Amino acid sequence: MKGQSGMDATELYAAKLTSAAEAVAPISTGETVSAGMAIGQPPALLAALGERLRSDDLKSIRFYYKIGMQPISESLLVEGVREKIDPHCFFLSGTEHQIIKDQQQTGRKVMSFVPVHFSDLPRLFKEIIDLDTFLVTVSPMDGGGYFSLGTNNDFASTAARHCKRLIVEVNENMPRVFGQSQIHVSEVASIVENNVPLIEAGVAETSEAGRAIGTLIAPLVPNGATIQLGIGRVPSGVAEALSNHQDLGIHTELFSPSMSDLIQKGVVTGRKKTLHPFKHVFTVAFGTKESYAFMNDNAAFESYPSSYVNDIRVISQHDHFTSINTAIEIDLYGQVNAEFIGEHEYSGSGGQYDFVKGASLSKGGKSIIALQSTARKGTLSTIVPKVAMVTDPRMDVEYVCTEHGIVNLRGKSTKERAEALISIAHPDFRDELTAAAQRVTLI
């Protein structure tokens, strides 16, 4: 099929194929630039952009991104470059933690955090951010002239269509995923090829506490339920405990290796899903070489923007939706903090509240916060008198589970909540939590 240019898809591809350095050459000083998140971060393009900034060929840009993984952290967030990009981050990780420490030592602000629910992130690129250039990794082009965003739909599918210049890095290892993940070659300004291994999360080893938590949660999940799970030791424990369930469905922000295992075991079929039956719906995938290969050209997988997957109204339409999230801490009032440690942002709200609220509105749905009772090798309680920052307000928090038990806060008074949460705290901290509650006459 011929495009408006008179060239077919193969000819368009050849005409737009170039080197990474040539692809980023049109980016001008003062532009607003963004890149895909997680596995969607294009290493060759980001390295070329970083080199232009390092050499002072490009003086400054404003850069929006989510999670500074290796392709971003080693190109744009290094000292001497990050000062030129005015970084605006939607979710913090290890690299940003170090930048925050540096800022504390120097007293000089370098990085800015942008608080936003994951469900609202695409809207920023539609209505708020005037985006000049977007850089993203895609799968190879198919016979119809379409690339796939593969592991990353999130805000990428929206940013790609609301930027002035879209530059893609084609990687043969990026899985082809269906749903709303397709970008046509006619929409692209430049194409770069770079067949490198995709970043892998690895399989999170289940902790003893995570296994105990999974055993407590599994009975709350009915057969046929649609689930949302995160990634890490606790979610892995929950996934293990669901191994004997039947006909579960997936509608999740993050698709992880533990979910891939449940599908291959026949536990997840999607047969009883209210929306998208027989389809595994996600907006971001972070996994292993094996889980990426399993997704590739698999018609059961569909990705959609986070504005759809994380929409409370969409989540709530699934009957028996069970949302299982973890947190940094929860206080005696039932307020959940999943993003702050001490005086500083540690991660971000992500899509946690989207699923907490959406699951609670589902017919037969349940929202569960699962966390180990202690942190820092048992020296800190994760149940505290008052949280540093509220991610999930107390009115919306339902089930809370640690390795010491599970409680439902819905409908409980503040006194009953405090007593329930103290009962599932680590025994070493129950007395001081009780004393703290008594000081403010909470109990």
Automatic annotation (TrEMBL):
Pfam families: AcetylCoA_hyd_C, AcetylCoA_hydro. One of its GO terms (molecular function) is acetate CoA-transferase activity. It comes from the Bacteria. Keywords: Transferase. Its EC number is 2.8.3.-. Residues 13-199 form the Acetyl-CoA hydrolase/transferase N-terminal domain. It is an enzyme of class 2 (transferase). One of its GO terms (biological process) is acetate metabolic process. Residues 287-437 form the Acetyl-CoA hydrolase/transferase C-terminal domain. Belongs to the acetyl-CoA hydrolase/transferase family. This is Succinyl-CoA:coenzyme A transferase. It comes from Gimesia fumaroli.
